[in-house]
Amino acid sequence: MQVPLYQAKAEFFRMLGHPVRIRVLELLQGGPVAVRDLLIEIEIEPSSLSQQLAVLRRAGIVVSIREGSTVSYALAGGDVAELLRAARRILTELLAGQNELLAELRQADLPLPVPHGGPGRT
Predict the structure, then answer these.
(1) What are residue 76's phi and psi, to 5 degrees?
(2) Mean pLDDT of the chain
(3) Using one digit for the tens of pLDDT, what is the confidence trace for 35-46?
(4) Which of 72, 92, 86 is nearest to 16 (CA)?
(5) How far is CA 22 from CA 48, 62, 79, in A?
(6) d(CA 48, CA 38)
(7) pLDDT-derived band of residue 78, with 50, 70 and 90 as boundaries?
(8) CA dihedral of 100, 106, 108, 114, whole degrees rounded to 10
(9) What angle separates helix 46-58 from helix 19-28, to the nearest 10 degrees?
(10) How many angstroms from the chain centroid is the CA of residue 53?
(11) How many Å apart are CA 27 and CA 78, to the nearest integer?
């Protein structure tokens, strides 16, 4: 039995739902990056990075490139970079909306102005 499209999409987003995987994909947007450089940028244990890279590789999102003793990773296609850019745009809009709401809330907390003439005057 074939998996429904919505379920396949949910599994895809669940696979992306790890901070290290997202960071790796962000770093790979500029082109291939050596594993040693990924380790420096992400500051995690090599075994943890290896595990996350394996998940991305199995999903077909990244490819490994071996040049001598250096192993680098690259995005398998440009669509993932576009997805990350779309996510950034969506988050920017959401946070801008939250900032506007926060400004409104702060404005509502300010004391009301006292009418000119003070109390008891007409």
Answers:
(1) -75, -25
(2) 89
(3) 999 999 998 999
(4) 86
(5) 14, 12, 14
(6) 12
(7) confident
(8) -130
(9) 80
(10) 16
(11) 13
Question: Do residues 25 and 41 touch, judged by C-beta distance below 8 A?
Answer: no
Structure tokens at 119: 């109390």
User: At 109, phi and psi to the nearest 5?
Assistant: -80, -10
Residue 121 has pLDDT above 60, yes or no: no
Residue 59: which of 83, 38, 39 has the closest Cα?
83
Where in the chain does DSSP place strands (E)?
33-34, 62-67, 70-75
Q: Are 25 and 34 in contact (CB under 8 A)?
A: no
The pTM (predicted TM-score) of the whole model is 0.75
